[in-house]
Structures are given as C-alpha cells and as structure tokens.
Amino acid sequence: MTRIAVIGGGAWGTALADLLVRKGGLESVTLWAREPEVVEHVNRDHLNPVFLPGAALAPALRASGDVAETVRGADVVVSAAPCHAVRDVMARTAAGVARGAVVVSVSKGLEPERLNTMSCVLGEVLPKTAKIAVLSGPSFAQEVYARQPTAVVAAAKDHRVAQRVQQVFSTSYFRVYSATDVVGVELGGALKNVIALAAGILEGLGLGYNTRAALITRGLAEITRLGVALGAEPATFAGLAGMGDLMLTATGPLSRNHQLGVDLGLGKRLEDALAGRATVAEGVNTARSAVTLGERHGVELPIAREVTAVLFQGKSPRQAVSDLMERELKAEQWR
C-alpha cells in the first residue's frame, strides 16, 4: 500500500490525484490546495470547479489546506504547484517529507528568478534523502481525467527511481515510460510552452499550416540546441517530452499557452490577455528565461527572442514573424 500526497490543486494536480485514487491499491491520496474553496469543494462535493470544472472526482480523494500535514508519512509526493511557487510551497513540506520518499515534479517550466529547473529547486529545498524524479509528456489534464489513452515519461538520475514512478502512475490508459535524462525531459516540457505561444500568435494572425509546420520544426531545433548545451541528450527531444509535448501544446485548443498566443496574435496586450485567467500560462515567464539561458550559453534562440519581444517589449506579432523570415540565410542545422 502506498500513501501519496499531491501538492497543487490546479487542473493537472487534480487530474493526477483522481487518476491515482481510481487506480486502486493505494492506502490514500491527499490533495493539497492553496485555495480554501478548492479544498471545500473537493471534500464536500467531489469537484474542483475552479480548475477542473465539470469533472466528478473520486469520492475517496481527500483535500487539505495544510501542506506540511499533507506530506507527512507519504511514500510518494507529487509536486504540482506552478513553477514560480514551487520553491516556497515545497520548502514548507521539507520537514514532513519522509526519509527515502519519492518526490515527483510534474510542473513544466523554469524558476523565473534563478532559471533553475524544478528538479534543481526540489534538490535545494528538500532533504537529501528524497528521491527526486520528473514526469512530463503530452498530457492535457482534461483528457487524462477523461481516461483517454496518454503516454508520458518519468525520468530520474537513478533509473530505479524512474521505474518506481512508472509503476505508481501507470494505468490501462496512462502509459509511463522511464528515462534517466532528467535535464532533457524537464527542458522539453518547459521550452515547448514558448513555441506554443508562438504557434498561437500565428493562428491569431490568420497564418496557415505551412507557417505552423515551419515554426514547430524550427522550434524543436531551438529547444534541442539549448537542451544539449545544458547537458541533455539530443534523442530526448525526439521523444514524448520533446516532440510529443511540443506537437500537443502547439496545436491543441486545450493548451493555455497556445490560446494566450492566439489572443496576442489578435492584437490584445499581454495584460489584457492574462486578465481573468484562473490558470497559469507557464510560457510567459519561460520565454524570458530561455532567452537569458541562451545568451549565457551562447545558443541562438530566435523564436524565443521574438516571443519575448512581443510579450514584454510591445513588438507587433506581424513584425516578429517578418523579422524571423528575413534573418540571414543559412544551412539547416539541427544542433
């Protein structure tokens, strides 16, 4: 029997908590949420109308507003808070994390201030005995909740830890592969959000399939270049955490980043496009972080640079597209 704590009551954390409860054979699954109304709705109505509306949750799923108590005694802790909040939230769990517990990061992005991946953040704030892994891949929360066949990848430096995560999460409709390239899996999950923003901008501008195909292909090359510079394995970006997640997020209408990009392409300012959204579009902060990382490591990231200019410098989306197309001609290079 396994006790699991899911830290983060957003759509993804809620969908994974529901999956784990319904899998059966677990002693308990507890979901921590920052919002008191989410805790109340989950416990009283078995719903999360704030972040996963219309989804009837497993009655056995319990929610708590006490993060330290939620993780106490858990064999597996799932870190599902937004990236900008992971350091603060998970630092508050440190004293309660059991010796040898597996801590699985499912947040996709980079820490805005320090530019760290989430596994690095967890390594800094949690006890050294914690076994840290990441879970990523093409997986909309709504479709996982609906039990649509989905494949993702779990990565940990120790392959046995990745295999443990694989066993915990795998079901008949949620297939988990294992890997050891933690950096590559995390960077693929983070950087694809930037390309998804760009794909949405193209759609908002009324551009078609030729343009989208070029963007996704060159976007994957851009992600791979930066990933390899940071120590990732090139092949990772051809897999679920790279190409798979990029294709989903850059084309799927359920993508928050893609939809935000559409709004920007239609002429909305970032502040107006973000107004009233309950969920976080991680690509906004990641775009700026990616550009900074690229400059630090001497890696050219033209798409991320133009997305950042649209987001934060008032550049018109159409001018950004024009500037990308009129760059100096060169041979196609993948790395």
Write up this protein.
The chain is of the alpha/beta class and 335 residues long. The chain has two domains: 3-180, NAD(P)-binding Rossmann-like Domain (Rossmann fold), CATH 3.40.50; 191-325, Orthogonal Bundle (N-(1-d-carboxylethyl)-l-norvaline Dehydrogenase, domain 2), CATH 1.10.1040. Helices cover 50% and strands 12% of the residues. The protein is globular.
- What value does the average pLDDT take? 95
- In terms of structural class, how would the helical and strand content be classed? alpha/beta
> How is the CATH topology of the largest domain named?
Rossmann fold
Q: So what's the overall shape?
A: globular
List the strand order in the largest sheet: 3-2-1-4-5-6-7-8
CATH-defined superfamily of the largest domain: NAD(P)-binding Rossmann-like Domain
Amino-to-carboxy terminus distance = 45 Å
Précis, in short:
The protein has 15 helices and 8 strands. It is α/β, with parallel strands linked by helices and 335 residues long. Strands 3-2-1-4-5-6-7-8 form an 8-stranded mixed beta sheet, with helices on both faces.
Protein traits:
Rossmann fold, globular, 335 residues, 2 domains, N-(1-d-carboxylethyl)-l-norvaline Dehydrogenase, domain 2, alpha/beta, 50% helix, eight-stranded mixed beta sheet, 8 strands
Question: How do the helices and strands line up, and which of them pair or pack?
Answer:
Layout: E1 3-7, H1 11-23, E2 28-32, H2 36-45, E3 62-64, H3 67-71, E4 76-79, H4 83-91, E5 102-105, H5 118-125, E6 131-136, H6 141-145, E7 150-155, H7 159-169, E8 174-179, H8 182-204, H9 209-229, H10 240-251, H11 256-265, H12 270-274, H13 283-297, H14 302-312, H15 317-325
